[in-house]
Amino acid sequence: MPSSPTHEETKSTPIASEAGVTQSTTEFSQATQSPERWVTLQLTWAGKPFSLDIADSDRVLDLKTALHDLTRVPPERQKILGLVKGKLPPDQGRISDLKLTTGKKFTLLGTPEGDEIKDPARLYTVLQFLLSPLIFPFFFEIELGNLPDVVNDLDIDFTKDPNAVKRYKHDQRNIRKVKEMTDKLSVNIIHPLREGKKLLVLDIDYTILDTKPLTSGSLPPAECARPKLHEFLEAIYPYYDKTKLVELGMIGANLLDKTCMFTVFTERDGQEWQHSVKALQIIWNHFPQFNATNTVHVDDLGRNFALNPQCGLKIHAFKNAHTPEAQADRELDKLARYMVHIAPLSDLRSLSHTNWKTVLKSLPRS
User: Fold this and answer.
1) Contact 251, 173 (CB under 8 A)
2) Which of 56, 239, 276, 311 makes an SS bond possible with 37, Cβ 3.0 to 4.6 Å?
3) C-alpha distances out from residue 326 to 52, 208, 316, 329, Å
4) Could you tell me which residue, 10 or 60, shows the higher pLDDT?
5) In the chain, at which residue ranges do the beta strands (DSSP E only) sit?
6) By C-alpha distance, which of 60, 50, 54, 55 is closest to 107?
7) What is the pLDDT of residues 34-53, one digit of tens each?
8) DSSP label of 182
9) From CA 364, how far away is CA 366, in angstroms rounded?
10) 0.70 exceeded by the pTM?
11) Average per-residue pLDDT in the chain?
């Protein structure tokens, strides 16, 4: 991926060695990873020379992402000339199939994106306002911009497809991506994590906030929060430390930025399919006191659980916050009762969170 040093023809990416980051001891590190073949490409954009390193196991999407990192030209605006004969394969195409060699030269055309929609200071202020009564050890992962509505009919339940999960976990590219994201992630701890607590990884966009009116400014911040948000966080505080995940740019203070996510490739109904994932292993590598036995990941998209389906708990999306139907939402009330119910368990792997609402029906009302 983009770098100034030249890679050898074969190279494996090292695991992060920063203070507080330990080598993974779970399935990603245990999977056999043979040496990879890398090539160094030379390109010209806007009259300036650049070089980037790419691995055979990478996909065309990774190449486009690397070019975006170098030039700020987003993939949809990139025109790549001279890299291959004819049209560049689709995003899921493997770099190995392009038969590239070190020193290959090409030209990139495209206009870089501007900064007009990226205002992290404003969003951080909004989140501070919404959560100001709660002095908890939070992390946030935020992605600013005009957020499209999520198409839930493209979602998938990976607990029903263990073979797909196995392919994901043993894919050489995915193993390397987890290591790269671990190395890239920098976590600024303001409120220390508490010893002996479980970890709740909590998505924000369309899970605890309706982010469309929040980022557009069409509703006041307090009216974008899912009903009973504060009550939910207060109820689970005695049992869980929390990591918040939203697809919205690093905004400071106990945050996990969107670099924690990367794209994976598979097939669905016989068709090539790609989607982003949230790999809990990246968090666990930084905080080894947490693992699959004591982590719950709450999200409105089941496909985000692809690498850790046993930890995933899906709730329905919260949208259209201005409507009476949205204000009558009590999903967080239900979730709080379930989270408190399972908190005493020493190993959460014995649970299937896909049935969490069925379990909830059997619990007495407090």
Assistant:
1) no
2) 56
3) 47, 12, 11, 5
4) 60
5) 10-11, 36-45, 48-55, 79-81, 105-109, 198-203, 240-245, 261-268, 271-278, 295-299, 312-314
6) 50
7) 788 999 999 998 888 999 99
8) H
9) 6
10) no
11) 76
